[in-house]
Amino acid sequence: MTEASLDIIRAKYIASAVRMDQYPEGELIEVVFIGRSNVGKSSLINSLSRHHGIARISGTPGKTQTINFYQLTAKLSPEERKDFFLVDLPGYGYARTGKTSRRQWSKFIEEYMLKSPRLKLVCQLIDIRHPPMESDIEMYKWLIINDLPVQIVTTKADKISKMAVQKHLNIIRNALGISNSQIIAYSSTKGTGRQELLDVISEVLLK
What we know:
Elements: E1 7-17, E2 30-35, H1 41-49, E3 67-75, E4 81-88, H2 99-115, E5 119-127, H3 134-145, E6 150-155, H4 162-176, E7 183-185, H5 194-206
Parallel strand pairs: 2-4, 2-5, 5-6, 6-7
Antiparallel strand pairs: 1-3, 3-4
């Protein structure tokens, strides 16, 4: 953890992309969010940035079909500010998506994640209420194999009791084979875990 408490003071939508030539220009660090469809990614992005509505929340799983770039301004200290890109990737594992579309999505997502020199952290979101699904485990293994820095963030922590949170975290930890520091319990409604995740992002921005 860092001594200074980072906070987000500005956030704005920049671009949506399905090809490399559509990515925003510049050298800003990228922090990526990925998870199964309907895991609560948009709600978490809105909560983290404290700009409600910056990421559109849909009741239809699999709605996000593009790589969405948001530019966030982090306040690192009273004097220091730093901009970075928060990148929202399409959800994986939605059964109703056609196989052709799934292949196209996975191709451009894979291309982005393996070729972007600005990518410094991947936050993989998993619903805390359920054990990781096969697609969650496969995604985590793929990230590790490709040497991408991963932070597991469990969503919807307010949907279960406080006592159940630790039990469910242990289930997810054991399924992925990770340590306590590699997982955060987050509630977009209550803001639980927000500062913890901001501290992780702060470490990335300060490197």
